[in-house]
Design goal:
single chain, alpha+beta, seven-stranded antiparallel sheet, five-stranded antiparallel sheet, binds cytidine-5'-monophosphate
Length: about 240
């Protein structure tokens, strides 16, 4: 039985009320979902790996002065986070053509983009997260113009830092999705990185072989998802072989 009140349940995570006001507990599930074609599978141990990988990445970002909601990992599946007001956007940053961009624009997967591209999608399960422009975001009041600027600046800093971090361990950061939230501290409000950073929400390719080390292994029924996530964790130096 859960001791804490459940605040929100998504496809891969649950948020519980935290121990102190202004905090939440983020719990990583093993559920793995794809919308098109719709499929869900419980992959044993995925939540544990994502909790560890996301802890590592968010700690590094915090250390670099890039603000996130992350406070500390609590146990194998849970981390303590600051409560934020989630902005209903998925912000995708792309360095190399893959996935929906490759498909939509007919660009061969693996093509290095002339520059990094930022895209916005409206977070809405029923609508399958449609792509939106800044016009839609401001017209419908999902974020203010200044907030969009802050989000884009945050996304670029995250991309620059993490591209280098992954390259250092032989991994190409092809693309990734982030979510941002409004953190209220007294009279002040600032935009911080929320949600998670894991191979569920990023494309990570081996620099040498271009082997996929991310959720595309599940999307494309390639198998070996846990082994790939373990290898990401191992290269980042955050898990030893026995864990
Ligand atoms: O599918 P697409 O190419 O648009 O995905 C771009 C990036 O955003 C990928 O790294 C994917 O894992 C991530 N993404 C996500 N959640 C979604 C859609 C995409 O994490 N709902």
């Amino acid at each position: 039985m859960n001791r804490r009140r459940r605040v929100y349940e998504g496809k891969a995570k649950i948020l519980y009320e935290g121990p102190e006001p202004g905090t939440l507990v983020q719990h990583f599930k093993d559920d793995t979902t794809v919308l098109h074609p719709k499929k869900t599978e419980v992959i044993d141990g995925k939540g544990v790996l994502n909790n560890r990988i996301s802890e590592y990445i968010f700690s590094q970002l915090n250390r670099m002065g890039i603000p996130t909601h992350f406070i500390r990992r609590m146990n194998m599946r849970e981390q303590l986070i600051k409560e934020v007001e989630i902005i209903p956007l998925q912000v995708v940053v792309r360095n190399i053509a893959a996935g929906s961009l490759a498909k939509r624009l007919g660009i061969e997967e693996g093509t290095v983009l002339p520059r990094s591209i930022i895209e916005f999608y409206y977070k809405n399960d029923e609508l399958d997260d449609p792509m939106v422009s800044e016009e839609h975001i401001t017209a419908f009041g999902w974020a203010a113009p200044q907030e969009i600027d802050d989000i884009m600046a945050l996304a670029i800093r995250v991309n620059d830092f993490l591209s280098g971090l992954f390259l250092g361990v032989g991994i190409q950061l092809v693309d990734f999705k982030i979510e941002c939230g409004r953190l209220y501290e007294g009279d002040l409000m600032r935009i911080v990185l929320a949600d998670e950073f894991s191979p569920d929400s990023a494309r990570l390719w081996d620099s040498q072989t271009a082997e996929k080390m991310d959720k595309d292994r599940f999307r494309r029924d390639m198998g070996g998802l846990i082994e790939a996530y373990q290898e990401v964790a191992r290269r980042l130096g955050i898990m030893n072989e026995n864990e």
